[in-house]
Every structure is written in C-alpha cells, then in structure tokens.
Specification:
CATH superfamily of the largest domain: Spore Coat Polysaccharide Biosynthesis Protein SpsA, Chain A
Radius of gyration: 26 Å
Number of domains: 2
Mean pLDDT: 91
Number of helices: 15
CATH architecture of the largest domain: Alpha-Beta Complex
Number of strands: 27
Low-confidence stretches: 512-528
Distance between the termini: 36 Å
Structural class: alpha/beta
Helix content: 25-40%
CATH class of the largest domain: Alpha Beta
Shape: elongated
CATH topology of the largest domain: Spore Coat Polysaccharide Biosynthesis Protein SpsA, Chain A
Largest sheet: 10 strands, mixed
Strand content: 25-35%
C-alpha cells in the first residue's frame, strides 16, 4: 500500500443516512465501533431526515468517539448527493460502503486489511441477510472476480471496499443512477482496477426491513432502470458491442452482444452415425444436430466439419450432404474411439477463425445459437464459451463445471429447466471454472496455443483438462445461459470413468483428495 500521511485512517466508512429506524442505525454504528481493526473513520451524512432524533443519535455517537463524524445536509438531495458529500470528506486510503441500517462483522476491516497489496483496487466479501428477529440467513457465496456476472447483476454489493484515489478518479457517484449508484460506481472502478479480490467470508449483514430491496426486489423499480443504464454505459465505455436489456427479475440484466458476421466459424462434430429413440421417435443424432444448428443461426461464413468413423452408414453421409450442402466438410476417422483425437483431426481439416466443438447427440434450441456463443470471443480476455445443456426431460445437464477440492462435476446437475439457481446463477452469463466439451467455442489461435484436446483422455475429462489449460494461460471462460441445447448423452455414451483417465487428470491438475472417484464414476457430488 502507498504510505499514508499524518493521522489519516486506513478505512473511511461512508454512510448516507435518511430516516432509518433508530435501533437499526444504533446497531449499525455499534457494529463499526466493534471492529477489531481500529484504523477507521465513520462519516455519517444525514440527508435532511425529518426526525430530529436521527441527528441527535448521530451527534451523541460522534461526541463519544472521535473517529465518527457527522455531516448534516440542509436540503434532501437523495442518496447520490449524500454519498458524494461523504466522499468529499474522506481521509482514508480506502472507501468502505455501509448502509445506514445494515451490520458489518467485527472482523470485517481486519479481513480486508489482510488482503490489501499495492496492486489491489477493489475488495468485496460474501454477505447474508438479517431479519428483525436478529437471525442471519440466505448467505450469498459469491464467486471470485466475475466481470461478466457484474454486467448481469450487482453481485459484489456488500461489503464493498474501493481505493479512494480510484473512486475520485472516476468521479464518485453519479446523478441519475439512484438505486443502482453503487453498481455504476463499481463498474467504473473495476474497468480501471489492477486487481480485484474476493474474500469468501460473510463480512456484511444486509438488514431486511419493510420497503428495502433486501426483502422485496420489486420495492425500488427505479433502481432496475438505473442499473440497466449503468450497464449499457459500461458496455459502451469498454467497447463491447451489445445492448443491455432487463433480465428475468428485478436486478438482473440480459446482455445481447452483436456477433461479428465477418468471422468464419467451423463447427467440428465427431460421429459414428448412431441413432436412438428421442421422445418416442427414432433419429440419427448427427443429422438432427446439424439440421437444428443450421436452423438456429444466420452466421454466413459457417462450415460443418463432421469427423466420422469408417463404419458410419453411407446413407448418413449422403443425408449430411443434403442438409449442409457446400458448408459440409467430411473427415474420415480410423482407429479406436477417441473423442479428443477426432476433435483434433477435425480442427486440422477446418478453416474457421472460430472453432466450435459439438457432440453429435445434441439439438439446438435457442435462436442465434452460434452468434451467442461466438460474440464474446471478440473480447481478447475471453478464451472459451459454452452453452446451457438440457436432458430430454428439460432438466439441466450442464451449468458450468465444478472444480472444488475433490469434486469435478456439472453445476446444477438435474435442476429444472426454468430454475433460477442460487442467486440467479442460471439466468445470467457468468465466468465458469470449466465448460463441457459437448458444446464449446474458442478462437483458432487459442486451440493451437494450448495444444488442442489431450488425446490421452479419449472419453472422460478431456473438457476439464481443456478448460483448465485455457484458464492456466489467463483466459476467462463464459457460460452463456441463453445458448441452449438438448443433450441426449445418456443414450450415446458409456458414463463410467476409466481409472487411467482419473490418474492423468489428477497428475496434471492435482487436487487434495481423490476419494470421490472410482472407475464407475462419482460417488457423490454437490448440487452447486
């Protein structure tokens, strides 16, 4: 951290105040005074509360503790004006945002202090809610820094700690963003931040009171409007060609990117021309996969590279020529089944700037499917995108990979298709630890950069390995919730995991404990 001068505190807690319940305000102040880290100041700005008792309480607290300062505005200006009044008085190196009726844990500032380095510009923590009965509930276990999620939801929220110099550099809070002023500020700060740190501990209790967004997301509709405006301006500033729309619930946004239609795309599909029953009808999987994909995209420079086993029936190959026409590239494959090798051989026979790897046992559902997958790849730090996959009964097969300690599995496996997930996980694009090889997209040069798919993993974990290689070189991986497909996996593959594949994965990417794995697969797994 840069050196501080004089008696300036490390943390300046900024709290705009307007007509809170007195008990809640008193408890908020007490939670600040109870910090194990003493290096702070609390700046309370009363925004002309109608009840003199509010000011009397704040004056009394300031008189008893020199670290508490009270500023009384003569005219009510709203939360942005009051917050900027507080910012003008900040003396600390870090701005800490705390609402007038919430609580911080006693170790909050110490936990933040412990992660600060000269490169860190923004810190956020997990949070939960607290009811009138004092019971804490609804913990939000937040992900590590996820800029894509922040565009869809103000997920960092509480506790937020921002470098003061950077807050001032971007102009503080802005008029016209009331209700989502913190979302707007964090978007602008993180556009310039060098490092963003997540503390995976609850350091903040969001109080649920009548009329608050904590208890009723519909309580402040103007905040949703302001948030959409903040996200759109953010997209424009960072050069992402996209439109911010309202999402499926207040506080959620949908980002509709504009795909680059000048990009050539190669879709690589390994197949043996197999068939099976789907919803009571027999189908040849690869034919329906190609047909559905072409029906759900308008990308003009598209080729379909089908890598087929020599045993594939000739009638299947002939029908593929009819369905795909001059977009089709047929690549024969000899030898034992090896999904990775088939993908690599398809890559060598492809010409597209963008590569999509796709199973043959899928059916595209959403419009602009290819466009949705490839559009984020215009952003240089995005290395891989993947879609949302449903089983035939519309339960979820893939919502991103889980890599947590000794678990490697699909997030939200088996959840209903219309579920929102924990804190709307399933209704927004977000960074993921990994993505299923049944449907992923990346730039051609990045396929080459990481050496393609590992042929030492012919069936299982090749997508885990591929995802981890791309993350290892610094890329973000995006799960695109609106790129939706059916996946008929249970009908077309042996689900058993081979012991040598487990050995390979854990040798290359060690984890603490392999006990969950057996040759027959996972014994247990969490739902998220």
């Amino acid at each position: 951290m840069s050196p501080r001068t004089g008696d300036a505190p490390l943390f300046s807690i900024v709290t705009p105040v307007y007509a809170p319940p007195l008990d809640a305000l008193r408890e908020m102040i007490a939670s600040v005074k109870d910090q194990t880290c003493d290096d702070w100041e609390l700046i309370l700005v009363d925004d002309a509360s109608p009840d003199d008792a509010v000011r009397s309480l704040m004056r009394s607290e300031a008189a008893s503790d020199h670290r508490i300062r009270v500023i009384e505005r003569e005219v009510n200006g709203g939360i942005v004006a009051a917050s900027n009044t507080a910012l003008a008085e900040v003396g600390g190196e870090w701005v800490v945002l705390v609402d007038h009726d919430d609580l911080v844990t006693s170790n909050a500032l110490q936990q933040v202090s412990d992660v600060l380095t000269p490169e860190v510009d923004y810190v956020y923590s997990d949070e939960d809610k607290v009811g009138d009965d004092g019971v804490f509930y609804d913990r939000f276990r937040k992900p590590t820094w996820s800029p894509e999620r922040l565009r869809h939801q103000m997920y960092t929220s509480h506790l937020s700690v921002l470098r003061t110099a950077l807050v001032r550099e971007v102009g503080g809070f802005r008029e016209g963003f009331e209700g989502s002023q913190d979302h707007d500020l964090v978007l602008r700060v993180t556009e310039r931040a060098r490092e963003v740190v997540h503390i995976p501990k609850v350091l903040y209790h969001w109080r649920v009171v009548p009329g608050s967004a904590a208890g009723d997301p519909d309580a402040k509709p103007y905040a949703w409007v302001a948030g959409r405006k903040a996200v759109q301006e953010h997209l424009d500033r960072v050069g992402i060609r996209a439109v911010a729309e309202f999402g499926d619930a207040p506080g959620l946004y949908r980002i509709v990117r504009e795909a680059n239609l000048d990009r050539s795309v190669s879709v690589i599909i390994p197949t043996r021309g197999g068939d099976g029953l789907v919803w009571g009808d027999r189908r040849c999987f690869v034919l329906e996969a190609v047909r559905s994909l072409l029906a759900h995209t308008e990308m003009p420079l598209l080729e379909i590279v089908v890598v087929y086993d020599l045993a594939t029936p000739d009638v299947v190959l002939e029908q593929l020529k009819v369905i795909a026409g001059d977009k089709l590239v047929l690549v024969p494959f000899a030898g034992e089944f090896n999904f990775s090798k088939k993908c690599n051989e398809g890559f060598l026979s492809s010409s597209g700037e963008i590569i999509i790897l796709m199973n043959d046992d899928v059916e595209a559902v959403s419009d602009q499917f290819v466009e949705t997958l490839v559009a984020p790849l215009e952003e240089p730090d995005v290395g891989l995108t993947g879609g949302r996959l449903w089983f035939p009964d519309k339960t979820l097969q893939h919502g991103g990979h889980i890599y947590f300690k000794d678990v490697v599995f699909h997030s939200y496996f088996g959840w209903p298709h219309d579920a929102f997930g924990e804190f709307s996980d399933l209704r927004l694009n977000r960074e993921a630890s990994g993505l299923t090889g049944a449907c992923i997209a990346l730039r051609r040069e990045d396929y080459e950069l990481v050496g393609g798919m590992s042929e030492a993993l012919p069936l299982s974990f090749n997508d885990v390995d591929f995802s981890r290689k791309l993350r290892h070189v610094g890329y973000r991986l995006l799960w695109m919730w609106e790129a939706t497909m059916f996946h008929f996996e249970s009908q077309t593959r042996d689900p058993r995991v081979k012991e040598y594949e487990v050995d390979f994965l854990f040798k290359r990417w060690p984890t603490p404990d392999r006990d969950l794995f057996t040759p027959d697969g996972l014994k247990e797994y969490p739902l998220w």
